[in-house]
TrEMBL record:
Gene3D superfamilies tied to this protein: FAD/NAD(P)-binding domain
Taxonomy, superkingdom: Bacteria
SUPFAM superfamilies: FAD-linked reductases, C-terminal domain, FAD/NAD(P)-binding domain
GO molecular function: oxidoreductase activity, acting on CH-OH group of donors
Family the entry assigns: Belongs to the GMC oxidoreductase family.
Domain Glucose-methanol-choline oxidoreductase C-terminal: 428-552
Protein name: GMC family oxidoreductase
InterPro entries: FAD/NAD-bd_sf, GMC_OxRtase_C
UniProt keywords, alphabetically: FAD, Flavoprotein, Oxidoreductase
Pfam families reported in the protein's UniProt record: GMC_oxred_C (PF05199)
């Protein structure tokens, strides 16, 4: 039996950064918003003194329960996909705040090149530069059009930074100065400057000082205690939906937040969504929530899966190239170099999730690709997140993996190890996509999402190039022992890299090649907005969160316009 509820103006499916921003903006505009979140509600008080690495970082207290719903994975379509039974390459958030609760806080704008990647590539190198099988396309929006939405997030979250060379122009300065940092970042900056590169401190959502945002929400100053990634901030100093947009939405009186509410279907008829079906995860009771506008605002995999399970949109077919839902799934090429120092120590236990130094000299099209067999690149990064004791226990190459010598080297190098790594871009390929698994189902009996993905040849070449840059930098920094280059032959889902999954419901200017327009409004159902990393036509060489949030502000504007005027927005 399904209980039908009164109709609302907007329903969001998920209450993380995207659902929280839409809830805040739409409710401030006077729309009635229902926020459905399948996990529990959480806030700063729930995170106090939670320094349990085993519980949160390893066992994933804040993450999606894979025994209820997971995904299946294979490298290529000729293989049988198998379920991901435990977390490895990435971790999917659960509960109010979503992945925005447990993120580190690195906040990167995408490069102007990203938004017009096909046009700018052809303009500079010719169409022959685009390798066979790559599905790169322009986003249907430019950096200049995106810039105001980036600035809205900066001000709402209190982003801390000073300057960002080789990135797009800014209309306003950062609201807070950069975080203080330790000698390891100074060493990186001094070294790379001598190499003729342009390092800077990464913009961070970990606030460098107490800050009140334009909505009146107070964000505390970071205490540099670490325990950021995979944890909620016990001080309320890391901008997350829990301390910013969700309280703002609730303050309006127009937002009805419903945790423990798992959406299993989007209802639609004659090209319009009519509402959603959701399950109370505590009781199993089913409800129908009618709505004028449906905003699908969950994680990349869940956005794709919900559309496919609801028969909403046209599934991508890799054999014909037709269809758009599931198309252009991308991850990142993440490689790096460990450096062990015999002659100096660093206080690596002190830090903050988003604290680090980076450079963009090898990112986007900031360097000449004429003689290179790949497009794009990646940021080069050194982080100071505050090392935790269990998982951060590397030893020099050649050290035994256990026993007396391992213990000796482990103690010696705990504060003598640095890592320089990259967030490398991934270009969409015809053979990388998302669809429904024909065999495996979730706890409700609905098919799981199936991920078919491996690095393309151009991804491998980009990865090798970036790995060589990190190795050169680490050697110049004076490390005594330097690790060997990492393998990028095949994507490995078993080892954590980053929770940066994108694509499948991509944006663009043409309904033949994209699922949503530049307001993230579906071409095939104009009262449905699909908001999140699922909208990215390719994966850039940055942390993905800032662009996701900026697009949510853009989608909020579209939702408010649509509620008044209806019709297609772009």
């Amino acid at each position: 039996m399904v209980t039908k509820l009164p109709k609302t103006d907007v329903v969001t499916i998920g209450v993380g950064w995207t659902g929280g921003i839409i809830a805040a903006e739409a409710s401030k505009a006077g729309l009635k918003v229902v926020g459905l979140e399948r996990g529990p509600n959480r806030g700063t008080a729930n995170f106090s003194m939670k320094h349990d690495e085993l519980r949160y970082a390893i066992r994933g207290e804040l993450m999606q329960d894979l025994s209820r719903e997971t995904l299946t994975f294979r490298h290529k379509s000729s293989q049988r996909a198998l379920p991901m039974r435990q977390y490895g390459s990435f971790m999917l958030g659960n509960g109010v705040g979503g992945a925005g609760t447990h993120w580190n806080g690195m906040t990167d704008r995408y490069n102007p090149y990203d938004f017009e990647i096909r046009s700018k590539t052809i303009e500079r190198y010719g169409e022959g530069k685009i390798a066979d099988g790559l599905l790169i396309q322009d986003w249907g929006i430019t950096y200049d059009e995106m810039e105001p939405y980036y600035t809205m997030f900066d001000k709402m979250a209190g982003i801390s930074a000073d300057e960002t060379p080789l990135r797009g122009e800014r209309s306003e300065p950062f609201p807070n100065p950069a975080l203080i940092h330790g000698p390891e970042l100074d060493l990186f900056k001094e070294t790379t400057e001598k190499m003729g590169l342009d390092p800077f401190i990464i913009p961070a959502a970990n606030n460098s000082q107490p800050y009140k945002n334009p909505d009146g929400q107070q964000i505390a100053a970071c205490q540099m205690k670490g325990f950021c990634e995979r944890f909620g901030c016990e001080y309320g100093a890391k901008a997350s939906p829990n301390v910013t947009v969700v309280p703002t939405a609730l303050k309006t009186g127009n937002f009805d937040l419903r945790p423990h509410s798992e959406v299993v279907e989007v209802l639609h008829k004659d090209g319009k969504a009519t509402g959603v079906i959701y399950v109370d995860t505590r009781t199993g009771e089913r409800f129908e929530q009618p709505a004028e506008i449906v905003a699908i605002t969950s994680y990349t995999f869940n956005n794709n899966r919900l559309l496919l399970n609801s028969n909403l949109g046209t599934p991508y077919n890799p054999e014909t190239g037709r269809g758009t839902v599931g198309k252009n799934y991308c991850y990142q090429v993440i490689v790096g170099t460990d450096g062990f120092f015999d002659d100096r120590k660093f206080n690596t236990a002190i830090g903050s999730g988003g604290l680090g130094a980076t450079l963009d000299n090898f990112n986007a099209d900031n360097f000449d690709h004429t003689d290179l067999d790949f497009l794009h690149g990646g940021t080069v990064i050194i982080n100071q997140p505050g090392k935790r004791p269990i998982e951060n226990n590397q030893v020099p190459p050649g050290t035994p993996k256990w026993g007396k010598e391992f213990k000796k080297q482990s103690l010696k190098y705990y504060n003598r190890l640095l890592n320089v790594h990259t967030y490398g871009a991934v270009m969409p390929h015809v053979n990388n996509y998302l669809d429904l698994d024909p065999t495996y189902k979730d706890v409700h009996g609905n098919p799981l999402i199936r991920m078919t993905f491996d690095y393309s040849e151009t991804d491998r070449k980009r990865g090798h190039f970036l790995n060589n840059q990190t190795k050169k930098i680490m050697q110049e920094m004076g490390a005594t022992h330097v690790s060997e280059n990492e393998s990028v032959e095949h994507y490995d889902i078993t080892t954590y890299q980053a929770t940066h999954n994108t694509g499948g419901v991509i944006m663009g200017a043409d309904p033949e090649t994209s699922a949503v327009n530049n307001y993230l409004q579906m071409w095939e159902a104009d009262n449905v907005f699909v908001v999140g990393g699922s909208a990215y036509p390719h994966q850039s060489g940055y942390n993905a969160t800032h662009t996701l949030a900026a697009l949510a502000y853009r989608a909020s504007e579209g939702i408010i316009k649509f509620s008044k005027d209806g019709g297609k927005l772009a």
